[in-house]
Write a structure and sequence with these properties.
Structural class: mainly alpha
Helix content: over 70%
Number of helices: 11
Distance between the termini: 39 Å
Strand content: under 5%
Shape: globular
Order of helices and strands: HHHHHHHHHHH
Amino acid sequence: MKDVSRTDWVVALDREASALVEVLDSSPSARSLFEGWIDLEGYAHYLAQTYHYVRWTTPLLESAGTRMRQLGMHPALAELLVSKSEEERGHERWLLADLRNLGWTAERVEATPLGGAVKAYVAWNQYTTQEGVPTAFLGTAYVLESLSVRRASGAVARLISAGRIPNIHKAVTFLRGHGDVDGDHVEALAEVLRSLDDPKEQEVLIHSARTTRLLYPGLFLER
């Protein structure tokens, strides 16, 4: 494995987050969300796929924190993960509420097939938290929260301004909630991550961030 020094390794996570934004900005489907001109079908598809991965956030954080406790790894960080799992609890209900305001029942959301990207995302993060290096999920969290900071609030404003989707002002709870709070989360997470000085552990987190960066574009409906 390539060594990543303590002084620059969080910068490597930032590179993965920036690379994801660049890929999404170059994708017509993702850009249509960020710029507000996405249609109802595309937006509902994005929210439904997002629901199917977000519902795993709390269990994965709990699993990672619990396993770290069992392994005696980073006790303070293990407690942070368990605490963070409570912060994230119920966010999937924001997505159900948004979709309900677009005319989707909870049953329809649940019956929506998971795309390959979501299946791979869930499987990868289940593996790292349950059998691999449990701190790896923080690489995933870093990329996703960085994306929210850079694009979520702007997307909300443009979706509402464009008004292409009926009832859109009542269907942006998830994006608004993450755009409003994830800035503080990213800064706090970066500070915690700088305390991890094992190059092998750093590399695993970067790999998890890269995996997330590669999978996330699959949430969007391509036509």
